[in-house]
Write the structure tokens for this entry.
Amino acid sequence: MPKIPRQTLLTRRKADAHEALFLRLQALTRQVEAMAARRPTAPVPEDLAGLAEGALYEVRQFAQRRHRRDLPVAAAHFGALAAQLGTALAGLVAYEARHSRWDGVLQAQVWSLKGESGPVPLRRLQPKLDTAAQDARDSDMDQLQAAVERRINAITKGLRDEPVSARTYAPHPPAKIYPRAAGGR
């Protein structure tokens, strides 16, 4: 019977690194695929090959152990490079599947992280979370911030401590008018 690998919990830092790398690799793959669709046998420029090799090297930290042997070398032609980047992207999706789970309460895919107080949804999937509780906390925070601002204005600018509807600043005192000397302008 084959040995089933133990699923390890990952850290928030590694989950964030995965999501950032996924977005970069996805954009690079789309760009290369567009070029490969027009000219699959065209040679890959050095700067693009360097970007691809850097991304492929970073993907290695999320690959299974048996795929970590050699340093990645970008393919010489656009068609082959598109396939290579697509395979790396598929590896990131597989890693994501191994280290995430469905959360029924949030109705979203969340990372299986160690040491987190609550579930952390996968941001790249753009989950539509129920934000009613967060909106209530934000509203309370806005009210508290407005009260603190009123109090600071009352202390520093001599304003009233209650909300002012017409003005935000105290009226200026009238300018002193000195009587003119006789015969002066």
